[in-house]
Amino acid sequence: MQVSTKPVKGTRDFDPIDAALREHVKDVILQSYRSFGFNQIETPVMENIDILQNAEGGENLSMLFKVLKRGEKLKLDGPIAHENDLVDYGLRFDLTLPLARFYANNHAHLPRPFKTIQMGYVWRAERSQKGRYRQFFQCDIDYLGTAAPSVEIELITASASTLTKLGFNDFTVRVNDRRILEALATHCGVADKDVAGVLVTLDKLDKIGVDGIVKELQKKQLSEQSIEKLTSFLNAYINGEVELGTIRSHISGIEEQVISELTQIINTADSLAKNQYQVAFDLSLVRGMGYYTGPIFEVASKEFGSSLAGGGRYDNMIGKFLKSTSVPACGFSIGFERILSILQDRNFKGDSVRTRSAILYDPRSTELPELFAKAASLRSAEHDVSLEIRQKNLKQQLEALKKVGVTQFCNFTEDASSLEFKALE
Amino acid sequence: MQVSTKPVKGTRDFDPIDAALREHVKDVILQSYRSFGFNQIETPVMENIDILQNAEGGENLSMLFKVLKRGEKLKLDGPIAHENDLVDYGLRFDLTLPLARFYANNHAHLPRPFKTIQMGYVWRAERSQKGRYRQFFQCDIDYLGTAAPSVEIELITASASTLTKLGFNDFTVRVNDRRILEALATHCGVADKDVAGVLVTLDKLDKIGVDGIVKELQKKQLSEQSIEKLTSFLNAYINGEVELGTIRSHISGIEEQVISELTQIINTADSLAKNQYQVAFDLSLVRGMGYYTGPIFEVASKEFGSSLAGGGRYDNMIGKFLKSTSVPACGFSIGFERILSILQDRNFKGDSVRTRSAILYDPRSTELPELFAKAASLRSAEHDVSLEIRQKNLKQQLEALKKVGVTQFCNFTEDASSLEFKALE
After folding, report:
1. What does the radius of gyration of chain A's CA atoms come to, in whole angstroms?
2. Using CB atoms within 10 A of its CB, is residue B328 exposed (0-12), middle (13-18) or buried (19+)?
């Protein structure tokens, strides 16, 4: 066969070491979110192409993997007006859209509010680059059906506390609110059509500073007056003259409730952090997706540059599938692949108490029934016992077994009643 | 939006109750297989279309979900010679083909023999019918790189013992060997081209008896002489005159080693079963796939009709990706969706020791920080604590929470230091 044995471009195979770490991290995340009372749901990886195309998916829509129609539905005789005539399904590009569809279909018999966990793969035909994959795993929690600030407090606490269980500390949960950002833009006289572009620039405050922002906004041909107003505000913010409690005296058009709720969210979540991590207001946090409607958050760490998790409130999306009903919604997503890569760099092993033993044997031994029975009696939740056919090169065999996590071995000869294990070092 | 909110045809959404059961069963299977020293690997859900099309996939090839090419690679201007010009990837239809590709790509740094677990979804565009899904979950173990009978013993023992951990008992692992079936066909003078068809009929012995088999073979226009020879053999088999130990005196052309190894497999595996289940020779076991080369097995149960698991030796497939090298291989696959459906019918809950508590609260309470801190202190591996915003209809809310597995609740009013939980009945 002259076909490549490499995985599809932008996707990866996971060997036993990788797969075990991924499984462990999934398990920690799932158990942690469950302990907060979130409930797992699962949806199929394919969605109807109409659902995907009608979504507010932004650039994700240009990265869809589309599935060819089958049988008589696929018509190839005449001219093809558009590629969409050829497809009926697509691979999901996130877990939020399937959640919206699921909720519309099932809300009648779900608890309200509905606290949900989703863990699964999503697909985007991204241009290949380091750290960007075309199949990647997402871990989302979402809280549907209520708009109380305790929702945000719980999402932040659950996600941050999950990260601490994976060995992360000293990170900050940055919190902002889309309504503040929009009021700021209006306050500076930015036209509606330019708001998104201005916010993309503002997002870079940490990296390029106020000077960098001014240059970028000039390139984007924002008016001098708007740039001046924004600069003056940002300088005041950087000098610590603008705090959340006083922001309304700097920017007009922010409702008092927005600030009081955001303050409650940040203060309560920070007090629950017990100094393991920080929760803080950060005006320069923007978050790319246009569908956010209220508080937004992101977990940042100086050590790692890019963010570990992020989310926010999106009150207008879920309801679209339900016609009349509006459904308040807020979510937090952990960057699973980013976290995996950091844990691999750290040589993270988890806190497994499992003993993994290998018993090397000759398959021609007449004592096999006794050996197999003995191995069965040793197996338990904490003790894996692998029977391994002895190879000629014992040293090489033990080395390979060690690599897949075997911690001790026994070289079986005759007496199954008294197996002696040696540590595999 | 005027789009359907139903999942894609032939696929399913899983609500919290379904998803929790699926997760539990996956976990039991994974831990059980791990305890036998098998190692999990993972491959992407998409494979290159060439890999899928060149496979010995039989009718699965006609049920492929194919993925449309993207960008410049997709050419729709001219006439389209074949739909395969439009696609570059496809969704995997089983886990064995990806395993073969993975092994070819990674065997140099894997233990040999390689004992592997694969758990994941596969896709087939089957005609919809009850119990047949287009996206379904598979749990496979495979043992690559050696042909000793202890491989079969271990696969049978690991799979059967896993089923007992899910509450199955009183089942039989039926064992046969493709080489016996082929020798039987040759012995009866069946032409090579007719062997597959005869075996498909033989597979129904349990259901239609010898008379039914004769009728079906007559329809298939098998020669009278062949039918007569087969009938006479089957009658002897049913009357208990043909046992594995004496089968060579009835059918010529079976090597002695085939019988001695099959006997060793069945006797040892049955002794390890300790009467929790049976392992027995069954001449009428055929297994559909053409790629089997030696022992084959299937877990049957009178209670459930269809099989719970199956597998066999397939020594010629893995090596195809490795050009010169031949790689002995044997596998066992648990019918995850079949088992799930039985466990659901049985109202199976697993042996979870986890307590799931809900604390109902008013989001306007001034005691939120204390309540959240108290909840955090209660959470552990065994105790999930869900904070739930109190709804107007308390009875309805408790009913919905009970449905997602909450076992006790507390109606929080003021004092977080002394929460009292009541059982949710």
Report:
1. 27
2. buried
Which among A86, A379, A405 has the least Cβ separation from residue B35?
Answer: A379
Alpha carbons B134 and B126: distance in angstroms, whole number? 6
State the Cα–Cα distance between residues B424 and B422, nearest whole angstrom.
Answer: 6
Provide DSSP, B326-349: ---EEEEEE-HHHHHHHHHHTT--
Q: For residues A181 and A299, is the Cβ–Cβ distance under 8 A?
A: no
CB contact under 8 A, A105 and B5: yes
What's the pTM? 0.93
Backbone conformation region of residue A278, classed left if phi is above 0, alpha if psi is from -120 to 50, else beta = beta
Contact A19 B7 (CB under 8 A): no
From A3, A83, A404, residue closest to B74, measured CB to CB: A83
Q: What is the pLDDT of residue B1?
A: 47
- Asked if residue B340 lies in contact with residue B23, where contact means CB atoms within 8 angstroms, the answer is no
Using CA atoms in the order A398, A403, A407, A413, what is the torsion angle rounded to 10 degrees? -20
Residue A408 near residue A423, CB atoms below 8 Å: yes
Task: Give the closest of A30, A70, A150 to B389, CB-based.
Answer: A150
Cβ burial of A63 (10 Å; 0-12, 13-18, 19+) is middle
Domains, chain A, ordered by start: 16-189+196-201+257-345 (3.30.930.10), 355-423 (no CATH)
A residues 49..88 contacting B (CB < 8 A):
50-51, 54, 65-68, 70, 74, 76, 80, 83, 86-87
Residues 6+ apart with CB under 8 A from A254: A179, A180, A183, A247, A248
Q: How far is CA B122 from CA A135, B142, B318, in A?
A: 15, 17, 19
Determine whether the interchain pair B111/A388 forms a contact, defined as Cβ–Cβ distance below 8 Å.
Answer: yes
Sign of torsion over alpha carbons A230, A231, A235, A236: negative
Query: Considering only CA atoms, which of B277, B75, B12 is closest in space to residue B164?
Result: B277
Nearest alpha carbon to residue B156 among B172, B170, B136: B172
| A105 chain-B contacts, CB cut-off 8 A | 5-7, 13
DSSP-derived secondary structure letter, B215: H
- Chain A residue whose CA is closest to B43: A13
Give the E-state strand segments of A29-134 in sequence order: 39-40, 46-48, 66-68, 87-91, 114-123
A40 contacts chain B (CB < 8 A): yes
Alpha carbons B142 and B313: distance in angstroms, whole number: 9
pLDDT tens-digit map of A400-416: 999 888 999 999 987 77
Tell me if A409 sits within 8 A of A358, measured CB to CB.
Answer: yes
Asked if residues B11 and A46 have their Cβ atoms less than 8 Å apart, the reply is yes
Cα Rg of chain B (Å, integer): 27
| DSSP assignments along B126-167, one per residue | PPPBTTB-SEEEEEEEEEES---HHHHHHHHHHHHHHHHHTT
Residue A57 pLDDT > 80: no
- A379·B11 Cβ contact <8 A: no
The whole-number mean pLDDT for each consecutive block of 10 residues of chain B, a chain of 425 residues, reads: 83 94 95 95 97 78 93 86 92 95 91 95 84 92 94 97 93 96 93 89 89 93 93 92 91 94 96 94 85 93 82 89 83 95 86 83 91 91 91 92 92 83 90
